[in-house]
Specification:
The protein has a single domain (about 5-110), classed as Helix Hairpins (Orthogonal Bundle), CATH 1.10.287. Helix content is about 85%, strand content about 0%. It contains four helices and no strands. Helix 1 packs antiparallel against helix 4 (about 95-110). The protein starts with a helix and ends with a helix.
């Protein structure tokens, strides 16, 4: 039988590496191509983009047909805004996600 915790540990290692490298490269791109903005701007942008994604989901919930590409586009906007926010606050998002996954797993095991 596979050990789900070992699988989680492997995933956490990948997450830390991939997200951290992606944030670093994205930060270079962002600084070269766009004006510097404060963290508060990116936090508001993140909430706005998440709201747009939520509105698409609300339409689906109401029975309105939404093209899958529209959902993907909005999800990408949320991800980009999250990367900008994380970089602006010097948050190592890869490490933070890995740490949070451990907290979630510890909670799951105590249930």
């Amino acid at each position: 039988m596979n050990n789900p915790y070992k699988s989680l540990e492997n995933f956490k290692d990948v997450i830390k590496r991939v997200i951290s490298e992606s944030l670093s490269e994205f930060d270079l791109y962002q600084k070269q191509c766009f004006p510097v903005r404060p963290p508060e701007f990116f936090c508001l942008e993140l909430n706005g983009e998440a709201g747009e994604l939520a509105n698409k989901e609300k339409k689906i919930w109401k029975g309105i047909d939404i093209n899958h590409d529209e959902l993907a586009d909005e999800a990408a906007d949320v991800f980009i805004a999250l990367m900008n926010y994380s970089n602006s606050r010097n948050i190592d998002l890869g490490k933070a996600v890995a740490n949070k996954l451990k907290v979630i797993e510890d909670r799951r095991l105590t249930l």
